[in-house]
Amino acid sequence: MFKELLMPLLFLIYTVLSVGGMVLVKYALPSFKAAWDQQHQIFNIHALWVGTGATMYVVSFLTWMIILARAPLSIAYPIAIGLSLAGSSLCAVFILKEQLSTMGLLGIGLIFIGVVLLSRN
């Protein structure tokens, strides 16, 4: 049973770390830049957030290496990219307060349908 859950768990870890890292860096960079521009501070809470986001992104890459060692590229890549695209778009809307059109929402829905179809392969 653990082997059946391993790949979905790895994709979940990859997606959360990849998307979380990108969103955290995107969120913290403007504040980090402002602190640098105003006081030439490089070590502050915003730098910690940027560093944490970058670390998450690096760990997601290591998780991706594990996925690649265990799954066919023709299945793993579309699933990983689809989940990352959908996850980052949704986080951009709900966390970063960016706008997403109706067509964008439809696209995310189609991505999820594609991920489900590929994962059943």
Automatic annotation (TrEMBL):
List the coiled-coil residues.
none
Can you tell which superkingdom this protein's organism belongs to? Bacteria
* UniProt topology in membrane: Multi-pass membrane protein
List keywords of the entry alphabetically.
Answer: Cell membrane, Membrane, Transmembrane, Transmembrane helix
Any idea where this protein resides? Cell membrane
Query: Is the Transcription regulation keyword given for this protein?
Result: no
Q: Which InterPro entries did the record assign?
A: EmrE-like (IPR037185), Small_drug/metabolite_transptr (IPR000390)
The main location class comes to membrane
Q: Could you confirm whether the keyword Plastid appears in this record?
A: no
The signal peptide, as residue positions, is: none
Q: Where are the transmembrane segments?
A: 6-25, 46-69, 75-96, 103-119
Task: Report what the protein is called.
Answer: Small Multidrug Resistance family protein
